[in-house]
């Protein structure tokens, strides 16, 4: 009865009629006929007036507002999270809740747009700076040669090599950007196979041995000799993850420092840790090191090269494997990066892979 304007009008009219009849019954000269007539008139007039006020001035207007909100919700599914409940019983309260939910969703949408705008400005600034460095360097060498230095064979060869190196860095930056964009848009496919993670780590360490020797950095690999380190993942992409982490550990290590790569097998998971003895990462930078182009020590990073996209790519590769990269660090004590992969047991290894 309370779910419509008619029901509410009926209850209020009955209440008013009862009150009027109660007052009339106190008079001595009131006849039953008069009581009946007054009761009927009071009920009819009260009902009509209350119904008109409730229906046309309150409920109809509230219904119009709801219809507008429903149209907005159809165009933006999930924008208004609360649902209408018994609108005739507490119409204004329910309407207020719906509008509050709508306002909250809109505020959240505005905040996301503002964050995206800030990210867009920062990204354009970062990419402009990263592209400018190798382009200007290559231009400088080439213009110097065009201005006459090309006749000096020793200068020509040196400048051509430097220009080629700058263009190589530019190509690497563009390739990393393409890779990261493809991963974020879900265009990159993962080719999952069974392989030995221990062998993959050995390959990475052998590949980076010369780089470590140039910086007098020792590399140590800790893994159980006869353990099972087989996993089911995209081998090429995991190779890139390990390569990036070990390369960074060498690059940002102290002179004559040590890089420790530790591989452990748990009950169902493999855990790989890469530890360095570098300067460490300040707490305020830990949350941002996986952002595009973010560098903790920008001056040293520029000198040592790199695109600033490596850790962002690592993060997306591991997310594609339903894993995540973890980092712990203390200033002056180095950093530890780690991630998990599923352990492939012999029983699982005999099953066909889809």
From TrEMBL:
It holds the Pfam family HATPase_c. GO terms for cellular component: plasma membrane. CDD domains: HATPase, HisKA. InterPro entries: BphY/WalK/GraS-like (IPR050351), HATPase_C_sf (IPR036890), HATPase_dom (IPR003594), His_kinase_dom (IPR005467), HisK_dim/P_dom (IPR003661), HisK_dim/P_sf (IPR036097), Sig_transdc_His_kin-like_C (IPR004358). Keywords: Kinase, Membrane, Phosphoprotein, Transferase, Transmembrane, Transmembrane helix, Two-component regulatory system. Its EC number is 2.7.13.3. The chain crosses the membrane at residues 37-59. GO terms for molecular function: phosphoprotein phosphatase activity; phosphorelay sensor kinase activity. One of its GO terms (biological process) is cellular response to phosphate starvation. It catalyses: ATP + protein L-histidine = ADP + protein N-phospho-L-histidine. Residues 126-345 form the Histidine kinase domain. PROSITE patterns: HIS_KIN (PS50109), PROKAR_LIPOPROTEIN (PS51257). This is histidine kinase.
